[in-house]
Write a structure and sequence with these properties.
The chain has 445 residues and is mainly alpha-helical. Helices cover 77% and strands 1% of the residues. The chain is globular, with a radius of gyration of 23 Å.
Length: 445
Amino acid sequence: MMVGMASEETRTLKSTTNVSGSTVSDSPAPTGKQTGKASTHAWTTRLLVLGIVLAALNLRPAITSLGALLEEVREGLGMSGSVAGLLTSVPPLCFAVFGVMAPRLARRFGPAAVVCAGMVLITTGLLVRPYIGGTAGFLAGSALALMGIAVSNVLMPVIVKRWFPDRVGSMTGLYSMALALGTASAAAVTVPMTDALGGSWRSGLAVWAVPAAAAVLPWTALVRHREAPSGSEAPGGQSTRAWEAERARPVLRITRSRTAWALAVFFGLQATAAYITMGWMAQIFRDAGVSAGTAGLLLAVTMVMGVPLAFVIPRLATRLPRQGPIVIALGVCGLVGYAGLYLAPAGGAWAWAVLLGIANCSFPLALTMVGMRARTGAGVAQLSAFAQSTGYLISIPGPLLVGVLYQHSGGWGLPIALMAGLMVPQMAVGVLAGRNRTVEDEAAR
């Protein structure tokens, strides 16, 4: 797949090859300089694809690996239940707070350099948090890793928009698929991997620093490669001068854009649904009489649904002038899934798990719309930061509110009603965010 993408990027001369193997071209024969430039271009493109995939694989294991070992971490560090509850709310809070910094850092240092630094932060945070000592140290190490995740979250759509402007859908799909795979893999293999390493939760968490360190390597090479002469061509056809001119443009007044607000609320509501699903769905099944092992498998099915669909949905979205129909389709799947959880949670458990897994694919759709609703790379950076930071702030109360309703009502009727109720405004703002317009035009008005 990577080679195919790179080869399409390097087709600069129209040529055909005769039987003897010689090349017949309508254009003048390429000079040594042109050949070297094309070769460098192809190498950079392949390295970018590799970097994007490795980065995406490392944007969720810090969270899902901790979820798999949360009970052991609580006992090992002597955490109270309230502190452990706070720990589960830290990721969206860090995403909101640190994500705001990403556009300014990207304008100063370039998006590739910031993503590279983000991978370093993830590696360092994952490596030190199990061993730094005490609850405060564990939270500090987690925050360090989450800071790297936050800036990389925001800048991934920028990287795609800048270097693959004609391939936003397929590259966003590849990135989203890798992200879903990393999420599911960390949840599934952390416990058996911990057992294989001797049963220490510290080792089971620290081992995830290894793939994060691997992700640093291609981004380091890309940052060094960025030292190119002014005017040279960047991957995707954009010149360095054009990118520098884009960075010099005035900052958008993004809050003037209705599309930006709609996309931020859509992002927040889909994140709310995702965190509620990850945090509570297994418990819903267990309370309905499903065994703990089967409930875990059902949750894994929901998460794994995002792997293939995360590649398909963005490609489909970029081929449509409006993304509203996809928003509605995903929302209907969510509503049917919630209705099933309420009416027959055990009887149709596998069907509800699949439907809710499909509904959770609103995340790659939201990322795709970020790349489509802004005309320039700088605009994508601002829109991505605004939508994700505001959205993650919106998502923080959801899982906590579900827990409160469950505790006080003694059942799942009210929490499920809340989940289904939030799906309706998610569909409404998603339709607004999917209209064919750009935030630059709206902010100018």
